[in-house]
Amino acid sequence: MANRNARPNQSKKYKLRFQRESIQAFLLLLPYGLLFFTFIAIPIAVAIGLSFTYFDVINKPTFAGFSNYIVLLTQDEAFLKFVLPNTFKYAFIVGPGGYVLSFLLAWMLAQIQKVPRTILSLAIYTPSMLGNVFIGVIWKSVFSGDQSGIFNHLLMKLDIIDQPIMFLLSPDYLMNIMIFVSLWSSMGIGFLAMVSGILNIDEQLYEAAYVDGMKNRFQEIIYITIPSMKPQMLFGAVMSIVNAFNMGWIGVTLSGMNPTPGLAGQLITNHIDDFGFLRYEMGYAAAVSVVLLLIVTMFSKVAHGLFGEKDELV
């Protein structure tokens, strides 16, 4: 009799415990959920909705169906001829290039002592925090189009050129300068994550691998370092992808113009700013932003496929 009474009481106890833990989990996730819906889910839903409308900010949005997407993919010459090729060229160089540089620098820093490693890590990371300041002051001075420009001054001193070159206003040079400056300032939070990941790898793994026949540092990186820090590699890859498709401000900052000269530095984000905040065609700008979201999502899926954890079937 006592056992029969104990079972319902025990079941009730487990049920109350489950409810209490569920409430605690809900309260813990509530701040994240509110921030996620407020700053991510709702803006994305609004952008998708606006992309099917004509909206000039002043009047109410009017439904336009797929016309914005049709115009974007068939009639927007600037987008098809300049913006899309520029964006992919920039992203394919800056994204993988910055990612590989981040890993190589993180790996090299992990080989030195703590104090110089900390100082050098901070020095390498700083440009990513002060990008606008550095680009607006230092790099504009370096590539200035008059004789006071450092690069022009050096070229004229070496008798390579006779007249200063308008580097930042020339379609022939602007994109290459944007790529160079972007790679210089691409050591952001993904770089720090890689440094942390490498430093937290168990040294015994390397010792065991050398005992089993590993011969050099390259094999060490391929077979031990990268597989042991897949979460950090995935995080760095996603951050590199997002940053590569979100750096249109560099061309605007360098040239001081939007659209950039000859549309040479015009990326998708610049196209969004142009139509959304200069022409006030918010519906069309929303359609462009949705296309950008799809592109970033596609490349993020590729990164997850390369570095994400695979579910093992037992």
Please summarize what this structure is.
The protein has 314 residues and is mostly helical. The chain has helices at residues 2-50, 67-74, 77-109, 114-129, 131-142, 150-157, 174-184, 189-199, 203-211, 217-228, 230-244, 249-255, 268-278, 282-307; strands at residues 53-54, 62-63.
In the CATH hierarchy, what is the superfamily of the domain at 76-266? MetI-like
Write down the overall mean pLDDT. Answer: 86
Amount of helix: over 70%
- The topology string of helices and strands comes to HEEHHHHHHHHHHHHH
Judged by helices, strands and strand pairing, the structural class is mainly alpha
For this structure, the CATH topology of the domain at 76-266 is MetI-like fold
Please report which band the strand proportion falls in: under 5%, 5-15%, 15-25%, 25-35%, 35-45% or over 45%. Answer: under 5%
In DSSP terms (H or I, runs of 4 or more residues), the helix count works out at 14
Q: What does the radius of gyration come to?
A: 26 Å
